[in-house]
Specification:
Length: 461
């Protein structure tokens, strides 16, 4: 599963080529591109903010100008996130339009709106340039390219990566998934298809339908390879015989990126948000270690909403907070809600069991203060109090450090704070884990033993 905060997307292509007389224009390209962009931002999609998406579809920029903007975008986002060499970054590159394997000698090219004769080789996007740019700008990132164009399978060989030294390979294993995978609308010998009605591309319609309806037999996320398989199930029934999509993983030095579950599976989300609204079911979702952290937290908050008017929900919320196998951050987040429902004594007792030292009541008060400030988006005082106001421009990092501050403020023992870091890493949330660890390391007077334990917890993610 990917972290939305460390995902960026680039959308290229065009619906018309005004300087080329022998290339077919179609609004279907624009329809597919815009629907894909909607998916990038949707709560049921990748949940990316506008700043995390660079849209160059129908851009008047030259091919070299677009490459320059892509490079600047990746550098800017990497700097904002503090991802050295793209470490922990997921880059999604999407192209919708025309591809041609004959423009450049032995190289597949993607046409942009400004492509023109007689300089086609310099006015198109060469996939070797794209592959090299993505690799150079973020060599330790995970990259997926979706190419909705004719003969797209021809691009795969240009993404083959150079070999790594043994030292670099060992470093890569410690920094998480990296490499590249491609999802292509057609093989190297076949043209892609437009919908005869002009409503989109055949390939684009198929993958958008897969992303919208998912796989009811799978759990929370889909792999790129499974998306391709489900798209082919839809395409193979069409009368105009569209080509079969292809998945390529030309760089598998640290695993097969196409086999990593990254894309939200719609039926799973619907099950969680639809029928599973009973208090017991919500508690089980929040306690289930197989489910991603965001979904578990959402289930807990849904349960808390019900607890305000339902004693059964209050009981289930209390059982969740008492469960030692539930991540600490979820258990702690339950306690202000239990207190709000009138069970102050119970909430204090559970907090006492977590923090010890007869600090339960004070810790709960601090926890309530933090949650109230977060609800009001009034966390500036906390930022100043913990000397982290200088990073207010990075909301995700700010939140992680504030949570670290809150854990210290309520008196949570350092070993339990390190456990919170380890839990987040284990359940697929390395970004907040890193930020909370950074917050611990900012504290004055930490012994070398504690610093070593924190860094060890980070090194195994």
């Amino acid at each position: 599963m990917l972290s939305a905060s460390h995902t960026i997307a680039i959308l290229c292509g065009a619906q018309s080529w005004p300087h080329l007389v022998n290339v077919q224009d179609s609004p279907g390209f624009a329809d597919t591109a815009m629907r894909l962009q909607t998916y990038l931002h949707s709560p049921r999609g990748l949940r990316l903010s506008p700043g995390q998406v660079l849209s160059l579809f129908d851009s008047e920029d030259s091919a070299s100008g677009q490459l320059g903007r892509i490079h600047s975008f990746i550098e800017t986002e990497s700097g904002r996130l503090g991802t050295k060499r793209g470490r922990g970054l997921f880059i999604l590159f999407i192209y919708v339009g025309h591809g041609d394997p004959t423009i450049r000698q032995s190289e597949y090219s993607l046409l942009v709106r400004s492509s023109h004769e007689p300089l086609m080789s310099t006015s198109t996007l060469g996939v070797t340039d794209i592959a090299g740019l993505l690799r150079a700008a973020a060599p330790e990132s995970m990259r997926i390219c979706i190419l909705d164009a004719c003969f797209a399978g021809e691009a795969a060989k240009h993404f083959q990566s150079r070999s790594l030294t043994s030292v670099a390979l060992q470093a890569a294993v410690r920094t998480g998934p990296r490499g590249v995978a491609l999802l292509c609308a057609a093989d190297a010998k076949s043209p892609a298809r437009l919908d005869p009605s002009g409503a989109g591309t055949r390939f684009g319609q198929a993958i958008l339908d897969v992303l919208a309806t998912g796989d009811p037999e799978l759990s929370s996320h889909l792999t790129l390879r499974r998306i391709s398989e489900l798209a082919w199930q839809r395409l193979s029934d069409l009368p105009d015989d569209p080509p079969r999509p292809e998945v390529h993983s030309p760089d598998q030095r640290e695993g097969d990126v196409a086999g990593i579950p990254l894309f939200p599976n719609a039926p799973h989300l619907q099950r969680l948000r639809g029928d599973h609204r009973q208090p017991e079911a919500l508690r089980k979702i929040a306690a289930d270690a197989r489910i991603d952290f965001d979904t578990r937290l959402t289930a807990m908050l849904d349960l808390a909403d019900q607890a305000a008017a339902d004693t059964v929900a209050t009981h289930e919320l209390t059982e969740l907070a008492r469960d030692p196998d539930v991540p600490l951050l979820i258990r702690l987040r339950c306690l202000p809600e239990i207190s709000r429902c009138g069970s102050e004594v119970v909430a204090v007792a559970i907090m006492e069991g977590i923090v010890g030292g007869h600090r339960g009541a004070e810790a709960l008060r601090q926890m309530r203060e933090f949650v109230a400030a977060a609800h009001r988006s009034d966390i500036g005082d906390w930022a100043v109090r913990w000397d982290i106001s200088d990073i207010t421009g990075d909301p995700d990092r700010m939140w992680g450090l504030l949570v670290a501050a809150m854990l210290a403020q309520i008196g949570l023992h350092i070993d339990l704070r390190i456990r919170a870091v380890q839990e987040l890493g284990a359940i697929g949330r390395p970004d907040p884990a890193h930020y909370i660890a950074q917050g611990i390391l900012r504290e004055r007077g930490l012994s070398r033993r504690v610093q070593k334990k924190v860094r060890l917890a980070l090194s195994v993610m």
